[in-house]
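Purpose: get a first structural picture of the assembly so the mutagenesis plan has something to point at.
Setup: two entries, given in the order below. No constraints added.
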Amino acid sequence: MKAAQVIMDTGAHAAALAVKSARVDVVPGYPITPQTSIMEALAAMVENGELHARFIPVEGEHSSMAAAVAASAAGARVFTATSANGLLYMHDVLHMASGGRLPVVMCNVNRGIFAPWTLWADHQDSMSQRDTGWIQYHCSSNQEVFNTILQAFRVAEQINIPVMVNFDGFAISHCLMPLTLPPQEDIDRFLPLHEPEWRLDPAHPSSFSNVTNASEYAPFRQMLSEDIMAAIPLVKQAAQEYKDITGMWDGDTIDTYRLEDAEVVALAVNSMAAELRLSIDILREQGIKAGLLRPRLYLPFPAEDIISVLPKNAQVMVLDRNYNFGHPGGILAAELKSVLFGRRNDITVKNRVMGIGGIDLTRRFMAAEIRAMMDEK
Amino acid sequence: MKSVTKAYRPISWPMKGAGGDTGSWRTHRPVVDIQKCTKCQICWVYCPEAVINREESTIDYRYCKGCGVCAVECPTGAISMEKEA
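Result (structure tokens, whole complex):
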């Protein structure tokens, strides 16, 4: 058996290496900062023959997702990537991918949305795509990006629902971290070649997404709604089997740190959640029983796992890197409250929005914020 | 937890009447005067719904939408459009 290889590389290159390991067939792409490094790496891999895929340069993100949808309907394993306004420009076709039940996997490298323009990370882009019917992971390290893309393909192809793998621009996409690359035969064992039970095929003509009457349309939407919820056990299974094969674990639907006896729980996603582990250590040194709950899966929101894991009478400090316009605070806080209502009345939820447009979130800053939130009514 | 449902993809296969009984859309019905018909098959070529029988020049009124293309194209004036009751 071959040993795993350990290299130093960026989050963007970790994504490209995962796509190569997944033996993807088609990669449509359009550049947007900070995602461009993924597409550059994949274009180079196709050009030099490392990756046997068709690279389709397109004129914009709407076309990028349209090409992804068409290639997926033709039976290909498809990957694309985008950021911020590129993701928003795809919005229309994101619905075609989910409603069409096409297992496209896409990386969204999180970046704030205009206006005014910003290049740096927050989570307004991915979280504003909540109702498109995509499954969404949020990752907190380069290694997790690599691991999650492989798990995403597996889950997507099991239930024919597209999956978005999100991670922060620059803090993850452009920073070097050690990266373990499992042997290709292990990855092939975890993720076999894509064999869809249906595809657009001139030899067996069929039409895709025809006009439907209400009595036909409504059941399709109902099935999509129910099947997205069925992703939760598949996400857990994928994480467990990936661990069994590679030895690596990033959590399944959730990831926790020093949570068991916590009285104060920080809840956040992406790179800030990795930094929060250090904030938890600071708070523990100050005598505060602090812990971390990181939803790795944002959609479907892992309600039952969160309900079962939160310690009794905990105060949950939700640190949102996004705004929930029309409501005070952020989107994660609203999701959490809707999950807890009537189920865990012992829990107190407090919320702050921070890190918008890439404002640096250091361990000391977040520890101080959590302390201040503890004194709030 | 519910397992994934089977007939979940929006796919359809070509078959007669896949679009429903489109004959109900018709306001005018093409009527063939078989005495004037020369069996030239031009109506069969032009019919966008493929509802004209090639040999008999008869029309399948269950699916004919009554567009009138056949009546316009018929070189001998054998097809007239009559208002539906």
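Chain A has two domains: 5-245, 254-375.
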